[in-house]
Write a structure and sequence with these properties.
globular; 8-stranded mixed beta sheet; about 35% helix; alpha+beta
Amino acid sequence: MSQMIRVTLPDGSARDVVRGTTPAQIAADIGPGLAKAALAARIDGELRDIMRPLEDDTNLALVTSRDEADALELVRHDFAHILAEAVQNLFPGTQITFGPSTGDGFYYDFAPTAEHGPFRDEELPLIEEEMRRLIAADLPLTREVWERDKLIAKWQADGETFKAEWAAELPANEELTVYRSGDGWMDMCRGPHLASTGKLDPAAFKLTRVSGAYWRGDQKNAQLSRIYGTGWLNKKQLAEHLVRLEEAAKRDHRKLGQEMDLFHLQAEAHGSVFWHPKGYMIWRELEAYMRRAIDGAGYREVKTPQVMDARQWEQSGHWGKYRENMFVIPDEVPNVEDDGPIISDDAEWMALKPMNCPAHVLIFRQGMKSYRDLPLRLYENGCCHRNEPHGALHGLMRVRQFTQDDAHIFCREDQIVSEVQAFCALADRIYKEFGFTYSIKLALRPEKRFGTEEMWDMAETELRAAVVAAGLNTPEYGWEELPGEGAFYAPKLEWHLTDAIGRTWQVGTIQSDRVLPDRLDASYIAEDGERHRPVMLHRAIFGSYERFIGILIEHFAGKLPVWLAPVQAVVATIVSDADDYARDVTAQLAAAGVRVETDLRNENINYKVREHSLAKVPHLLVVGKREADEGTVAIRTLGQEGQRIMPLTEAIALLNGEATPPDLRH
């Protein structure tokens, strides 16, 4: 075997180097500036340690902080390892489990000793101090390959039962690697990592909170302590992020939902929302808005069952691919006696639907369909249930019961591009009417999938063509392709909204599916007189009403557009002499279609202003004896200084205009 290998750089130049040369050595040969800046390397596209020797001819790209996505992934992974080492240094006997990077930082799950018990937020400053000590020590982070049996024995000898269990269950053909910090502490990890702890900025991270977690996310397993942190490339990035966190905390939909009396959640219905009258008014407005949109776009609304036989889910493929996320129900009368099992062992199984698509296929199959009937667009405000882990639930953003603005378009092959293009235009109009900008991504075939390669080739090509036809495949729309992130039955276009503080939320989607119509035997009679399979386009714009309402609350910081606000105006009196006039103002506003309440309480007007501002009422109409005599109102608008005095007729016209949904304004 030759001792020399060829390394090709991004500019096309090539170097012949000795086998075993590291990317760090190549960076040093190019120049001292690059040697200092280089953090890792991409070897034939794969991100690797900069100190890992090269063994074969390769394409090499050196990664620096300018490659921000890669650099952040690296430093956050390193911060997680340093967190784990710091905790074990400070609290001997603590076991380590997993510690991944996240979208804005990292976390690590620990099994504390029984004597110590769960970690507490008050201990975070001490852990941070130890982490900074480890960073200052500039400890080398080195990769080692271990034999499976020896690694399991090492973990067991060290009392690391969780690591030993995980190592034993990894695939037999998988190379087991660990990373050492200096000469001692180690963790099992695929990597990559930076060359040493000193490559991190000690002022660029902060531990944020402690929460409970379960081993492998299963509440039947051991309870762990999860320590969260945020990590960045430098102090400036951290400071900017902490400002965003502070703003996000002010906008938290759970906090605002309570202050505005919109909804609540409680343990008696994990992951399901109790909507209060004001919160459900927002829902109703969104539902009415979406119905007008889909009616205008040629959809037909349907309603399908909540529970279907397991055999249906087997046929669709969900039973095999998705069952761990489904709520299953025995199809029998439960035992009512005090003793004995509630359910027998021979019960047939049914399931609450986690999605609406198989039921829509069953509607399509009722009666013969002709090519002239296509496209057939079936829409449903479909209530679904998914068995999310308790620890993953988060307000309205991640729930177990949710309602999708769901639709399926059954169409011919020649209609796919035009239908997807029409959907792009509809989604664009709706998102812009809510004031959002967005980016669009194409999620490509995952490793585990149904269907032939030809099916996937066609579906991905059609979605690309539709985006091109819609003019959305541009940097302005953040066009990007995401390998491996499609559903098991179809690739999909995804819409990622950007909110008022720069966060992104994946909401809308459209998927081009040839698998489900085939598995569920959907067909139509084509022009040639033969049966053909329709293509099924799965699509949603809000995604789910629950999550979209949560996003809206946080985007607008509770100050919803007037047409969405549950209470659009409050008429408040200064003195009781104006009570009759206030009632008359309220009646006229209500007759004009404004959602209005009257506040006649014997309270100071400043108290009333503060209370209704906290409830995020868009307009407060203050009336006293002068306003009653002159037929005027003093309008205080949320978020604006001072007040405007205007005739009642003018105020009614103003509020009526703002209370009109954007699609109904002329």
